[in-house]
Model the fold of this input.
Amino acid sequence: MKLGANLSFAIKRWLGGDRLAKVVKEDLGLDHAQFTWDLVDPWWPSAERDRIARDYAAGFKAASVTIESNFGGLASYTYNHFLAPTPELRALGKEHFKRAIDMTAAMEVPTAGMPFGPYSADDALDPRRREDIYREALEALVDLSRHARKSGLTSLMIEPVPLATEFPSSAADSLKLMKDLDGATDIPVRLMVDWGHALFTPLFKEDADMDLWMRICGDYIGAFHIQQTDGLLDRHWNFTRDGIVTPEILADFWKRHKLTDQTYLLEIIYPFEETDDFVLEDMKKAVRLLRQAA
Amino acid sequence: MKLGANLSFAIKRWLGGDRLAKVVKEDLGLDHAQFTWDLVDPWWPSAERDRIARDYAAGFKAASVTIESNFGGLASYTYNHFLAPTPELRALGKEHFKRAIDMTAAMEVPTAGMPFGPYSADDALDPRRREDIYREALEALVDLSRHARKSGLTSLMIEPVPLATEFPSSAADSLKLMKDLDGATDIPVRLMVDWGHALFTPLFKEDADMDLWMRICGDYIGAFHIQQTDGLLDRHWNFTRDGIVTPEILADFWKRHKLTDQTYLLEIIYPFEETDDFVLEDMKKAVRLLRQAA
Done:
């Protein structure tokens, strides 16, 4: 299996291109990474932001680690973005992704992605509002695909999340989004499917099944976030913990579906209170377990 | 006890001044709140940001809910800010707080606060680097106190966090920070002490004791974050769950220390996957439990 790391595990701890690339390459032995906006905030003033972002790109390049994509993290996930209740908030969501695309271009990374964002509690219960806001979000994404192509990106990504108040959440939602965008965008939009989101049983029940996701929208999946989970919350635990995703299940899935390019990106989110030593050792152990199963 | 709510429980769910004030006033029956930057990002372009922030201020004012302070939330807590490893990142941390102060002034709220931020994993182990960066952070805060006073704020706040790699974490650290700032700032800087941080036993061991915090730095505590916890991680659970903080303990502490103004601000952070209905009912139940104990 093609293994990489989303850099969320490192936020606040190992900063700067050379330092973090060393962790990824030497400590973890990985050649692929997904950059997180939790390291560089797309809202930072663009000159400083791009200088800091380029330092990461240079450090990873020097260490021969490929940054495949740039992705929204915890900070970005805190706001409503494209599905917010007011036009002003939705415009800020669009501007946020546009700024992230600019930063991605500055890093010479080909892809940027994030979840669409949540509806407010009230809008989520109103089918008409949901539809109107969704239509607007599609238009925004089409616009952004034009900007992204001009900036040198080759694809965008949207990540389904395990909430009925957001969109897309299910595999069927995700397919709908892909069909609605097909042919309308200047560059392809693909899905970043997170195993822990797809296996969230309180929402998806018997459809919490990765094979079902492959049947329904497998053609559109650009890459996977992998995480350990109990299926009851969006845990983002590491594979050193017991749960319903084992390295063996991941390896079997990879083989059965004859995957080649859709990197398994370890997206582990540690409590900030965990010590740096613990996080590094735990990441090493998890990569070892995944390598053994592959 | 004087009870209020940090608005973290509401992020992504109940947005806009009127809507959220209704939740706080009518559903929860509270008259005091702490605004969170997870609702309005200080980095948003200032015209839109302040317009959206003022809408919250107006809604809360109309509902007679006092916003006592403006505070950094999850998104802000994701970055290194004042204790970051490079001058450029530290300048961005200072700019972040400056922008938050501007937003606070636009809302006519008297106080803004946040944690200082973490050192990188490497700097945290280097006493010389820690000291140099800390000195710079003090200067930045003195500068910002001048800006805050000019903007109409009457105090700033710093929140100790339960990590040896950040500062301040312990009660002794917190006292040191207060003494180092005493007389140097244009407006007072106070501590926002979080019960769940102070009771984090893996770091503080037998010093995980709120009475000890009162003895050591009680004079400087501006208000408290309250949360339920098992003392093993920074849980931010609600009081509907069992843990080491009970409403009775909170009430007894309030009485014994003859507290009057240092609001107990419920800071509950729900998994985003929890439903809106659950969150609202859970918040109501917790406020009821706290009222019963008072």
User: Anything to note?
Assistant: The two ends of chain A are 6 Å apart (CA to CA). The first helix of chain A runs from residue 17 to 27.
